[in-house]
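In response to reviewer comment 3 from the previous cycle, which asked for concrete evidence that the modeling workflow produces usable outputs, we include below a single protein chain processed end to end. The sequence was submitted unchanged, and the resulting structure tokens are shown without manual editing.
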Amino acid sequence: MKTIGFIDYYLSEWHADNYPTWIKEKTNGEYVVKYAYGHIEPPKELTDRVSNKEWAKTQGVELLDTMEEVIEKSDYLIVLSPDNSEMHYELSKLALESGKPVYIDKTFADSAAEAERIFAIAKKSGSPCFSSSALRFSDKLKDVVREDITTIIGTGNGNPAIYVIHQLEPIVMLMGYDIDKVMFLDNPETPSWVLHFADGRTATMAMFKGSPVSLKICHGSSEETIVVNDEFFLNLMGAIVEMFETGKQPIEHQETIKIMAIREVCVKAMDKPLTWFEVE
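The workflow returned the following structure tokens.
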């Protein structure tokens, strides 16, 4: 049995609740989440959450007092905090310095500069690591012909600043990351962005309440619509475990840094709608 340690901002959250079961399922029990550390207790306003101790008891995971203990005892590490990406540098620094393989949950970082700082630690220690939206690993996106895509119209749901990653990452995967500017459209009911590529192509992303992630992909005179509702999370678990086993990172760090730069501008643009913001 190979052991995985969780490092989280607080442990009672949807990803930490589900990843242990999915990892067991994907690896037939060969990989097990054995240890965990929660940096804080869940905020009081999140009334549906339980304490770190209760979470660990329910999951059958050993709750440890420090990140250092989790890092020392675990074969592999997962840094979670999916809704508090501003904590990823602090929560991942020691893990990456260990040289052990580390998966860092979405959204990787709040800025391109911070993404570069995190990856610099991994490069120095030789720690294999990556971060991704789970939707990148959807089986429905594997066979999409990418070369002739002229535009993508995406829809999804959730907190725009957090969940925009689930549309942005598939769009970048399919169309490339040469996005040079972003505009936010001022509609409070459906927060939306236009992405402009250096070659003149565009893509749009919009948030609709309750909408699954859907991509209308235009190939010149033809189009296809893909609703991303398959077992992409299980596929992500497979990609994480493969990195643990091989040390090979499925996504180039430069692509992740660029995605964080685009997402950073998407969030910034929300404060000044109908204005183009350049992506560095």
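The longest helix spans residues 253-269. We consider this sufficient to address the reviewer's concern, and the full set will be provided in the supplementary archive.
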